[in-house]
């Protein structure tokens, strides 16, 4: 029983760590085109990137777009784990805060 509690505690910590990972992941993998504020770097805007903070997409659509890419945006499925894509989608949905 103690062991189970410990395992659950570890899982909870891992989930929190994953959620907190989104800002760092975003600046590593996304900010080149989208800018740290999500509004798009000049290069990103030239490729057609829109202001990510103004999107009205559902969480599911965000996950799909990040996984499969779109237009000049590369697909991230296989480069990031599903959990990382999920947490990035949440981060974008939350206005990059
Ligand atoms: C090489 C540049 C580039 C990188 C890197 C990049 N994107 Fe994009 N992204 C784009 C472009 C360009 C678009 C616009 C695509 C279109 O509509 O043609 C876009 C669109 C999007 C959209 C909106 C899709 C829609 O339906 O309007 C989301 C959400 C998004 N990107 C998230 C991310 C996330 C999260 C990352 C990092 C994991 C990322 N992008 C990395 C260039 C990039």
Automatic annotation (TrEMBL):
Keywords: Electron transport, Heme, Iron, Metal-binding, Signal, Transport. Gene3D superfamilies: Cytochrome c-like domain. Residues 17-96 form the Cytochrome c domain. It comes from the Bacteria. SUPFAM superfamilies: Cytochrome c. Residues 1-19 form the signal peptide. The keyword Transport applies. This is Cytochrome c domain-containing protein. The lineage of its organism: Bacteria, Pseudomonadati, Myxococcota, Myxococcia, Myxococcales.
């Amino acid at each position: 029983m103690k062991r189970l509690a410990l395992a659950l505690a570890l899982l909870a910590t891992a989930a929190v760590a994953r959620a907190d990972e989104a800002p760092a992941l975003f600046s590593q993998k996304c900010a080149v085109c989208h800018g740290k504020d999500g509004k798009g770097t000049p290069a990103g805007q030239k490729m057609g990137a829109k202001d990510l903070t103004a999107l009205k997409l559902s969480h599911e659509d965000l996950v799909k777009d990040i996984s499969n890419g779109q237009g000049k945006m590369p697909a991230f499925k296989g480069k990031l784990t599903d959990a990382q894509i999920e947490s990035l989608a949440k981060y974008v949905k939350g206005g990059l805060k």
